[in-house]
Amino acid sequence: MTLLDAPTGSSAPTATVGSSTRPQKTVEVYDFRRPTTLAREHSRVLELAFDTFARQWGTQLTAKVRVLSQVTCDQVQMLTYDEYASSLPATTAMVLCSLEGVSAKAVIQFPSSAALTWVSHMLGAAKPASLPERTFTPIEQALVRRLMDDALDDLRYSFGTMLADPISVGGFQYNSQFAQAAQKSDLMIVASFEIRVGERVAPGTVAIPADVLLSQLGESNPTIDAADARDLLGAQLASVPVGVSLTFAPAAVLPSVVLGLAVGDLLPLPHPQHRPLEISVDGQPVGRAAVGAAGSRLAGIVVSTSLTGTEEGTS
Length: 315
Hints:
By secondary structure, this protein is of the alpha+beta class.
């Protein structure tokens, strides 16, 4: 019976107290041609590169600002440029870096107030006062540009061949919503940092067009032909170290003889002097070898192998 079929005078059924209500599900459109998640293999490589960049950048800041500095990478993720720009404060310093052969630009972002503190340290201030978020003067911008040139050198060193295209400092922007570093749908590799200069801690980000880096990383899940499995397994086993020993023929003795052994006793072995010793790998015989010497050390000269059954004279 539907509500329209209900008799006159009857009230519509109401939800009882305590009944569970399912929350509405939000559906996000996912473009399989442009996935917005990093493959695990790519993520590890990028995190290692950004960690190296953070250490190098912290060292450069310490040298240039002359105050103990440390940069720590917190997170690496892939976002569209629109998502990245929306996550930034409305007023902030954004250094747009041009990449040769690529229309999209890389971005180094940090609070302008933090950069003004760095400049104050560079000019000799011991404890700079707190400064508001504002644009840089020409002198301040020139000093920050020098810091960014050094940061890009560290970025190229940290990424190596992954950042094959030349990169250089372009312009400065102070409004994250107006900065047009890339198209809204362009994917960016975004790394978040904690920048500590002296007693001041400020957040920062570095965004690089994903096409620039992912094209150098190759396939995230390379496939292996099943026909090559045997060769790959053999190559792996050939690189595993094993223990090799030369053994005499075992002697059978009574427990009473073993219990009565003392220092200086002779235990005869049923192994003729002319008979080669047995080569064993983890208890498995693989050949025979005669007793020899290599300088001041004992050695075994291989005379036969159970794998080929041939007599050899190589040591």
